């Protein structure tokens, strides 16, 4: 029996190490630059290569970061600013010039996966950009196709969850009718060019609008009795899948079920101002750590970009807006979510002292390494009482329409400023978890 235990523990350790250290093409991270304390690009490149992160999303074009990742296995999503859209829409020549300046110099040494034309354009304050978004995407598509080595670069745009008018239950997901004149042609463009629909779901804001213990467990991938969707027959056990499921249902209802979904942003702040429910290190570690574990357990994981690599200390707004980072500027983790292959030695100057009255990020002694899933931060809740319609996707007060309209974080927070079915499990991860349970029972 002792030999069997040792063998199973060894086998479990092998599978666990393999799954966490291998590059994973479905895990990406956002790199915001509204900060004055970011580490040198070369340090960021070394940090990324020390993790299983395989994709980096920028909100613009940062030549130093792009060059630092040349020749690595890290692929990039680059972005145009919302302010760039009018000129890109008005002139193919302007689009060609943008590609010549911002894309061509980095090919073929850098792996550029996609260009996002703006961020949350259809739901931002300037409605004039909505009609210009598709022409800008079309002109960039032509310009990129004409550039040497650019034919495979995808052109898309990132949406907030507010493009949905209906999301609860997920199978009823539908896009807002008032966005149809702008959105439907964009969906056709994505379909024709095999480009993804990019969206920013944030379970954190769903919890903010419904701060009950059972909602928190649902948002953090913790044990809960689930939320049944009578339209699909699926019982959702976490908010992330429910939100992605609603987006997929909306695409299907619009006639574009074949358009893939990419989660361009999702995350959880580790601190906040008084009254910002749930913004704690414990919850941030639970959400992001369990999200990573969840993605690794899916046979066909949705490509997901965690927000964010570092804090952005110059962002306005509540403290939570400056507290989404996974790493400090000295490259040490604020908390561990299972992405590091090995410990990283600090190689940048220490973080400047915070302003008076502002809590600093937790120190190295507070970093917590998550145990193998399932992680339960709280005791399993009682049978789940469904939230009122709309709260499952976190409705912000003051937004027009019914309370079924989903929430998104404020688009000014960005630097420009899932599944609908049951999960199938990778064979290796099934064995991984089964071995863990079996070994624990033996002991």
What does this structure look like?
By secondary structure, this protein is of the alpha/beta class. It has one domain (2-349, 359-442): TIM Barrel. Helices cover 32% and strands 14% of the residues. The protein has an 8-stranded parallel β-barrel with strand order 1-2-3-4-5-8-11-12. The chain has a two-stranded antiparallel sheet with strand order 6-7. It has a two-stranded antiparallel ribbon with strand order 9-10. The longest helix is centred in the first third of the chain and has 20 residues, at 2-21. The N and C termini lie close together (10 Å).
Task: Sum up the structure in keywords.
TIM Barrel; 12 helices; alpha/beta; eight-stranded parallel barrel; 443 residues
Bulk shape = globular
Overall pLDDT = 82
CATH topology term: TIM Barrel
What is the spatial order of strands in the main beta sheet? 1-2-3-4-5-8-11-12
With helices defined by DSSP (H or I, 4 residues minimum), what is the helix count? 12
CATH classification, class level: Alpha Beta
List the uncertain runs: 8-20, 346-359, 364-376, 378-408, 410-443
Tell me the name of the CATH homologous superfamily: Glycosidases
- Assembly type of the chains comes to single chain
Largest sheet: 8 strands, parallel, barrel
Estimated helix fraction: 25-40%
Return Rg in Å.
22 Å
State the secondary-structure class: alpha/beta
Proportion of residues in extended strands? 5-15%
Number of strands: 12
Separation of the first and last Cα atoms: 10 Å
> Under the CATH scheme, which architecture would be assigned?
Alpha-Beta Barrel
Number of self-contained structural domains: 1
Write down the secondary-structure element order: HEHEHEHHEHEEEHEHHEEHEHEH
């Amino acid at each position: 029996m002792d030999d069997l235990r040792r063998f199973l523990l060894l086998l479990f350790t092998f599978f666990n190490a393999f799954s966490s250290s291998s590059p994973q093409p479905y895990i990406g991270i956002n790199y915001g630059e509204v900060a004055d304390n970011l580490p040198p690009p070369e340090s960021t490149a070394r940090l990324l290569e020390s993790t299983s992160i395989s994709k980096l999303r920028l909100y613009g074009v940062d030549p130093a970061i792009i060059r630092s990742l040349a020749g690595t296995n890290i692929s990039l999503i680059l972005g145009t600013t919302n302010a760039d859209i009018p000129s890109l829409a008005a002139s193919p020549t302007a689009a060609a010039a943008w590609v010549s300046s911002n894309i061509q110099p980095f090919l073929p040494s850098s792996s550029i996966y996609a260009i996002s034309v703006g961020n949350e354009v259809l739901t931002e304050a300037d409605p004039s950009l909505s009609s210009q978004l598709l022409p800008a995407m079309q002109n960039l598509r032509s310009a990129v196709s004409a550039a040497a080595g650019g034919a495979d670069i995808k052109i898309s745009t990132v949406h907030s969850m507010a493009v949905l008018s209906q999301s609860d239950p997920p199978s009823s997901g539908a896009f807002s009718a008032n966005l149809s004149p702008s959105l439907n042609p964009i969906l056709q463009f994505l379909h024709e060019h095999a480009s993804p629909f990019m969206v920013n779901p944030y379970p954190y804001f769903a919890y903010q609008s419904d701060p009950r213990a059972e909602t928190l467990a649902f948002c953090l991938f913790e044990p809960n009795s689930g939320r049944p969707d009578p339209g699909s027959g699926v019982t959702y056990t976490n908010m992330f899948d429910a939100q992605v499921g609603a987006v997929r249902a909306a695409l299907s209802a619009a006639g574009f079920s074949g358009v893939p979904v990419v989660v361009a942003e999702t995350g959880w702040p580790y601190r906040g101002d008084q009254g910002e429910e749930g913004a704690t290190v414990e919850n941030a570690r639970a959400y992001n750590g369990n999200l990573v574990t969840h993605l690794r357990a899916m046979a066909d994981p949705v490509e997901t970009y965690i927000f964010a690599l570092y804090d952005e200390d110059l962002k306005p707004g509540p403290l939570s807006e400056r507290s989404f980072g996974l790493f400090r500027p000295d490259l040490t983790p604020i908390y561990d979510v299972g992405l590091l292959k090995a410990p990283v030695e600090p190689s940048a100057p220490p973080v400047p002292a915070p302003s008076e009255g502002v809590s600093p990020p937790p120190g190295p002694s507070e970093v917590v390494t998550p145990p193998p899933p399932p992680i339960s931060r709280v005791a399993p809740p009682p049978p789940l009482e469904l939230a009122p319609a709309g709260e499952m996707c976190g409705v912000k007060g003051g937004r027009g329409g019914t309370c079924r309209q989903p929430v998104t974080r404020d688009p000014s927070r960005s630097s420009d400023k899932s599944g609908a079915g049951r999960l199938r499990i990778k064979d290796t991860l099934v064995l991984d978890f089964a071995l863990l349970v079996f070994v624990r029972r033996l002991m």
